[in-house]
Amino acid sequence: MNDKLDSYEQEILAxxxxxxxxxxxxxxxxxxAAREAAANTLAQRRQVDICLTExxxxxxxxxxxxxxxxxxxxxxxxxHKYLSGRLVERRLQRRIV
Length: 97
Hints:
Layout: H1 7-17, H2 27-42, H3 54-67, H4 71-83
Helix pairs in contact: 3-4
């Protein structure tokens, strides 16, 4: 089997066999994110211009920095999740004391 692996893959296999690799927390979420990223990479892209309020742009920029991704990637992800029905509005309920 090892002769079918390239040197990088053999390195990974050796590290696995030596117990040097550790599982990440929330492995299912990580796998789902990786699958989505791969699908998005393979999908045909079209460029769109969008106007945002200064406040929305600033909030998106801050969130993108927190997530460690470009702002455009964050906005594309939000739009994709909304259109595919995976982004659900959450209403905050205020309690009056």
